[in-house]
Fold this sequence. Notes:
The chain is built from twelve helices and nine strands.
Amino acid sequence: MAAPLSCILMECAKAIEGGRLDVADSLLAVIQSLAPKEESIWRRKVVKYFAEALVRRAYGIRPPRTLPPLPAQCDPRDCMYEPLYKFATITSKHAIADALNSGYKRLRIIDFSTMFDFWRWNYLIKEFKEQYGGLRPVLITSIAPKLSKHSGYLRQNWEQARKAVDKKLELRQLICNSPDDIVNCISKLRRKSEDEIVVVNWNYILHKLLAQDGATEQVLSKVKDLGADIMVIVEQEANLNSPDLLKRLEQSFQYYSTIFESLEKTYITKALWEKYFRRQIGNVVACEGVDRVERIESFAQWQNRLSQAGFCPVPQQVDEFKMCFQFDFDEYGIEEKEGHNILLSWHGFPLAVASVWKVTDPPQFSGGE
């Protein structure tokens, strides 16, 4: 984006923070007149969405909650090859496959996401069963928020799941609408047998716990109590959680500009993700306190937090990752980060990071339901 527009956005934010709404309004008018003159479509979009977020902040217009990038009429299979989506899927696939190589016969997946995607797991489970002939029944527990606007999609999703699954795949669903709900959901779960591998899967949602003090620590403690064997975490790689609006706006502006550039140049179904990131921008810029749930932080910050909570990283195979990913997305970079994590980038700019963790001192199995 041209420097003048980014500077005007910053000046507008300063005016809003200083209570000078008349100045902010005049700056927004300038932005509105200059934005259409930008040559790149993605640049025009980014300016528009940040200006929209500043208007919401200035006048206390609460933006809609950030919803997943799957509208009610969308078949999840249409999104299987979106870059961020596939990045997360490959991470889960390799992490679980490595664990199954240790001889486990049962698989239990606890999936945290803004919306449960049956088809994603259906494809993976089929691959696991072909590779591991002795794999016994698989249990998938989805822990996701209740989204009234997407109730039709959710109902269809689960109806499809019940029709498509065989006797070796069991599905359960728990509802969570807050960090406290997540803690309570995990508290209800128990390991069933010693030959069962328990996988806790977080895809672009763990950062939301930071909106409530102490929630992250509580949830990580419950994961340890559950006796999970591995925890798969995929998050956006950025530091957009500064308490200072101006710093947060500057950092998020650079990050989302890169995101939108990559989407504009590579994907037919980019509108699904554009809607998602537009809502993220609105939350990052317009909201504070518990309403600001998009508290995206860098991997370095998460690594420190997870280590203090008693988790250690599990190495991943970057070469295998590249083979699976870059066949479809050759413009994206895949590289090893600090020896045990995988970084997704766009022309060298970090977009997302994948990591796998295990408990440093796992608790002894005591049985349960």
